[in-house]
Design goal:
The protein is built from six helices and 16 strands. It has helices spanning about 30-45, 55-65, 130-135, 140-145, 195-210, 280-295, and strands spanning about 10, 20, 45-50, 70, 85-90, 110-120, 125-130, 150-155, 160-170, 170, 180, 190, 215-220, 225-230, 235-240, 245-255. The strands form four sheets. Strands 1, 2, 3, 4, 5, 6, 14 and 16 form an eight-stranded mixed β-sheet that branches. A three-stranded antiparallel β-sheet has the order 13-7-15. A three-stranded antiparallel β-sheet has the order 9-8-12. A hairpin with a 6-residue loop joins strand 10 and strand 11. The longest helix has 14 residues, at about 30-45.
Length: about 300
């Protein structure tokens, strides 16, 4: 069995990220995966250059970490492997907004395992941000406010606005115990307990805040590199600054249940009688309540 001391681990930034050598992932066992899981909690995103891995081996490796699922809204070309999701720049596939994977699901992704097949020699880097550090560096009053809030996420960017879930604005990592901001510009639509203008202001600030350079790592890809990232503590973003083809394949480990540090401290915002007409996101929130998400705001 591989141990952490058997691996060559090089930190890439002060906030998060490490490059790992010394383990052929195609041959990894469940015991090896447990070692990598511990390493992932520490570094949040791990990069494994120069890996040789078939599609079958990619899926087998992913299953060591938990149940896999394909993308719920985007097409999958691999009928023999429904767990694999492929994204190609030539088909419009560039994830160039900051996001955490699949937060519009009630049980979103635990981790993502990406294999870089083809990438340009220049550009197309990916950035990740440390959501725990971003939370910890908020002022104490703002941390206290965020601890008691929830937010509505949906799959509107995928043309599926009815696919939605409400999660805590701050979640507690189930292994490390650290608190992390859990809102993102791609999927988060509305803070449930605030009115629309208040929600827009706070969400805008938090989404910009987590992108502060000191919370991030930037990685330049080479073909054959595999990356594993923890969706419970990170967001990521592809730099759409390249020419040519960029093709990735990804498996996604599921089974997460985001939990906040406290139950929501306030009820959902209720628009005052005679107030301004409802916004699109107000209507989304009401739709979520009608799906069984709780008492409906009026």
């Amino acid at each position: 069995m591989t141990t952490i001391t058997d691996l060559d681990v090089t930190r890439l930034a002060g906030a998060l990220g490490a490059e790992v050598r010394g383990l052929p992932l195609a041959e990894a066992t469940a015991a090896d995966a447990a070692v990598l899981s511990d390493l992932l909690v520490e570094h949040m995103v791990l990069f494994f250059p120069d890996q040789e891995m078939t599609l079958d081996q990619h899926v087998t490796f992913g299953r060591h970490f938990g149940p896999l699922a394909g993308h719920p809204n985007l097409a999958n070309p691999f009928t023999e492997h429904p767990e694999v999701f492929e994204l190609a720049a030539s088909r419009g596939g560039v994830a160039d907004e900051w996001h955490t994977d699949l937060t519009f699901l009630a049980e979103p992704a635990v981790m993502s395992i990406l294999r870089m097949l083809t990438c340009p020699p220049v550009g197309g880097d990916t950035m990740w941000t440390n959501l725990c550090q971003a939370y910890e560096e908020l002022s104490a009053p703002l941390r206290d406010l965020c601890d008691g809030l929830t937010a509505l996420h949906n799959a509107e960017p995928h043309g599926q606005p009815e696919a939605m879930a409400v999660h805590p604005v701050v979640r507690v990592h189930p292994v490390s115990g650290r608190r992390a901001l859990y809102v993102n510009e791609h999927f988060t639509r509305r803070i449930v307990e605030l009115n629309r203008k208040e929600s827009d202001l706070l969400l805008g600030h938090l989404c910009a805040w987590v992108h502060e350079p000191r919370f991030t790592v930037r990685y330049h890809w080479t073909p054959g590199t595999v990356a594993i990232w923890d969706n419970r503590s990170t967001q990521h973003h592809v730099l759409n600054d390249f020419e040519g083809e960029r093709i990735i394949q990804r498996v996604t480990v599921m089974g997460d249940t985001p939990a906040g540090p406290t139950p929501p401290r306030w009820p959902p915002y209720v628009r005052a009688k005679g107030g301004a007409s409802s916004s699109h996101h107000d209507r989304l929130l009401r739709d979520w309540h009608r799906q069984g998400g709780g008492p409906e705001p009026t």
